[in-house]
Amino acid sequence: MMTMFIDEQTEDEDDIDPFEALNVSTTAPAARGASLLEAFAEDGDENDESLEEENEVVDTLEMGGMMEIEEEVVESVIPLGEVGIEEEDVDPFEELGATRQNVVESTNANVNDALAAFMDEDEYQGPENTIVFEGENATENESIEQEEIDEEIQVEAEKPRAQPEELYRFLLEGVWVDDVLDPAEVALMARKRRDLGISFETHLKILKQILHD
Amino acid sequence: MSVLFQHALDLAWSDGRLSKRGAILLENLQEILELSDFQRSVIEEKHHLQVIPHLIPRGFGSGASTLDQWVASLMDLDDELPRYLVSMGRQSLQTGISKQAWIEVFAAAERMKCEFEFARGVWEPQFEVEILVWPEALDPIAKSLGLLLEEE
Description:
The structure holds two protein chains of two kinds. Chain A has helices spanning 2-8, 18-21, 29-41, 47-61, 63-77, 92-95, 138-158, 164-175, 183-196, 200-212; strands spanning 98-102, 129-133, 180-181.
């Protein structure tokens, strides 16, 4: 790979070695490994030399060093004045041409978040933020969404709730799952009959239907 | 439904042969229990396949007398029958009732016009039930409910 990079160098780059510029060692990994081993093997006077070699190798491995290099490259592309603390404050919504509307501050109490329809009424506290893109009319959207939510609520209200008999049938079917009826199950079913307002005659009718299905 | 008629067949064939009297008593019981011919045929076919081949003939249909006595005992229970069925239902619940046992005994109770009482004994824990020793005539019911072992 390294040779490919070297081959691709052009004269326009004024013979600048990119590895040198990036402070990257061009020594083969095997050679670096050998030199490291030598550094451990040598004693005394040769310590300084080996330290230098070690430092050189360590420099190429340190991430900190690499990060510094990257920062330098960025600085060279983007003027320093443009990069700073202000960059963190850039609002991505503004960049996309959308404006953020704070509904909490507005006096409109209408629910305008379609997700609200999927939440429990008790838990839902209303949206805190909504995003309105440029060219869209916020109030119009709110009224449409409100209509949709009203429709959904109406549909939910019109939906037939589980009949007590159906619920009781479901429970009674569960009682026979293990094929044996015990006193605890009987007590449970008696309580359910009371709760659901089901007569004993209805219980027998449902029981017959279950057992003969 | 089959519990009672099945027992009647067992009694009628108890010595390995069915007498004419025994056959007449079975006809009578069919009427008492309000069984259709089809319902009776289903029970009899099962009995012919599973029981009769294993019987060793050792008499001339003396089982008819036993059958007659049993039917008479059952009829004599009359007003007492609901009380016994409630009690048996409650007692069987303590050990657990299988689905099959419930179906069989409830059907038998229906034939004896006591299904509501039996069901109350099983399904209404708040309903006070007197624990009674059932008469011998109700042994087939007790057997189905697991209150009586087969050997007994």
